[in-house]
Amino acid sequence: MRIEPFTDTPLSILAYDGTPKENPDSLGLGKDDYLHMYRWLVFVRGVDDRGYILVRQGRAGFYAQIAGQEAAQVGSALPLLKDDWMYPDHRSQGSMLVKGLSAAEWFGHVLGRTLDPTQGRLMPHGPGRRDLHIVPPASTVGNKITEAVGTAMAQRIKKRKEITICYMGDGATSEGDFHVGMNFAAVYQAPALMFVQNNQYAISMRTDQQTRTKTIAEKARAYGMPGYFVDGNDVLAVYAVTKHCADRARSGNGPSLIEAYTYRYGPHSSADDDTRYRPKGELEMWRTQRDPVTRMRRFLELRGWWSEEQEQRLQAEIKAQLAAAMEEAEKSPPPAPLTVFDHVYETLTPHLAWERAELAAELGV
Amino acid sequence: MATVQTPPQTQLTMVQAIRSALLEEMERDQDVVILGEDIGVRGGVFLITEGLIDKFGPERVIDTPLAEAGIIGAAVGMALYGLRPIAEIQFIDFIFPGFDLLVTEAAKIRYRSAGQFGVPMVIRSPYGGGVRGGAYHSQSPEAYFVATPGLKVVVPSNPYDAKGLLIASIRDPDPVVFMEPKKIYRAVKSEVPAGPYEVPLGKAALVREGKHVSIITFGAMVQVALEAAGLLAADGVEAEILDLRTLQPYDTQAILTTVAKTGHVVLLQEAPRIGGYCAEIAAYIAEHAVEHLEGPIVRVAGWDTAFPYALEKVYMPNAQRVVRAVKKTLNF
Ligand SMILES: Cc1ncc(C[n+]2csc(CCOP(=O)(O)OP(=O)(O)O)c2C)c(N)n1
After folding, report:
1. Nearest CA to ligand 1 atom 6
2. Same domain, yes or no, for B188 and B212?
3. Would the pTM of this model clear 0.90, i.e. be above it?
4. Is B137 considered catalytic here?
5. Which domains does chain A have, with CATH numbers?
6. Angstrom distance (rounded) from CA A141 to CA A145
7. What is the pLDDT of residues A16-40, one digit of tens each?
8. Of A125, A156, A244, A264, which residue is the catalytic one?
9. Do B325 and B213 belong together in one domain?
10. Phi, psi of B174 (to 5 degrees)
11. B307 CA distance to ligand 1 centroid (A)?
12. Residue A163: helix, strand or coil by DSSP?
């Protein structure tokens, strides 16, 4: 695959049925890498399925599924190095898991328990972890984009060989923050990857209601950076393009925009009713003909590296692993009431200390 | 000869009452348009605009790209031209990308054009906690708007007022921030007449009469005040509840009247205490009615933290806190 910017059709390596259009070994990958990628796809799908069940059981207030977008997330997170920074958005848990967040921490986050590295501070849009360089997302669409660029500018100022990846949806590209962030990133040649998961909807709004350009990738041209349009359900293509842009940024050649063309299977969130706006049949088509996990599995099968028996074993292994993670999350207590005053500032102000005493008296603790 | 009929009344939720205000005003005035995210086929995330696009078409029910600066800025421009736009911000927590257009432009154009231009627009938006929404789907940011001369700020507490206040806001010549308490969107029903009517801006409502203490509040907290009043009544304390309804301009007369009557004041808001709206009311009472006070003015508010997710119940003001505040001022 020639990694070219500004194509009209998405760059891809695997056809919808998993047949390679060309030999992906030229990416420098081998059997173990492919198996590793596939395992991640199955794993993040498993985590997400179990996370969503918590809402249906009434044990969480909210959930935004990534189902359908696993390849976009796994494929873009795998090329990152340990010290690289990640700004996830509200639908990036797959990327966070690849970067090092544990499934138990994710479940703890969804349940609002202390196992959540962010202590149940935000509805389940994603935690963060300083040591993993994962910045917690806000709910506010787009408002992390300029921050991510600032982090990338700092990496350049400090002459580190690190990069920053910023995740956003197609909807986020309508916010002013996107345009300001793109311009800053290009002007300062910041080592930033602007990674757009174009899942074709922003709640009910189709991408063609957000923008008149045919692709989002082509917007990059106006800011003076390359924009890559890639099949977001082809984990190999996403990996190859992200790796290419990461290498470019790491070697001082500036930012890139990547548009991963994909599809979300779930409603926008557990609070949405997608039957109001999704045309009949569309979801079924994507699910049955373009599924990112199945596509990678077919590729492995074609190479003779995967069997039904291996599949069963992997599913059983992940099931057990996730059951243990869920148990760990459930055992973790909710945050203690008085911690509500922690971390407003680094140290408690006199006024907050007074409010804390008032609450302690109220609770008799 | 046709007999005079009283307009039909129905029990409506706040969602239905707000929808009927939009529908009737759009029928009455061709210049009323609405714009916002997902307000078309999706009907808005709370279904307030459900069905309106079928009735009025995409030129008057404008589904916008995801950009609050675009929504608010475009509404200002439409209003300057003579339309009467109603902008929906999906959650008030997301008004901030358009904050500049609101506080710098919408609020100030009448003043700095010496009255030549005005912006008759409404920004409707759900606010408040109690819905497991965490830090960015629960806030009560009224203090920012109230501190901006040129904006009117309206917060209904029940379906009847919601409809009448929204109609009055749409017809008002100045920009109105209309904050809808989403926790009680569907939880409270009241009799709502069919057909348009106005509840005047700047007028408070006496929700409950009492002689021992005045609880002054607004929005979803009116329900909390009512619950507290029930608990207090069991103890022989009769609380009066004043629902401000409009925060800017606010009803000074109603405040002075209730303070003179009871001599004890508890102020109740969901937002953090420091610099909050109730501080303004407390200052006003201290300046103008201190001779009637028989105890300290006590505020019940959210803690001075960001809005938490897991600890939401610990955060939200509740009836027990109001009761304690009432005892504090009564036992002074
Ligand atoms: C500034 C802002 N406006 C509105 C919202 C409400 N909202 C949450 S997600 C969303 C759509 C986001 O679409 P997109 O960026 O494409 O990401 P997706 O959810 O499809 O992954 C909207 C409108 C918000 N969270 N923040």
Report:
1. B90
2. no
3. yes
4. yes
5. 24-334 (3.40.50.970), 337-365 (no CATH)
6. 9
7. 999 999 899 988 999 999 999 999 9
8. A264
9. yes
10. -115, 160
11. 20
12. coil
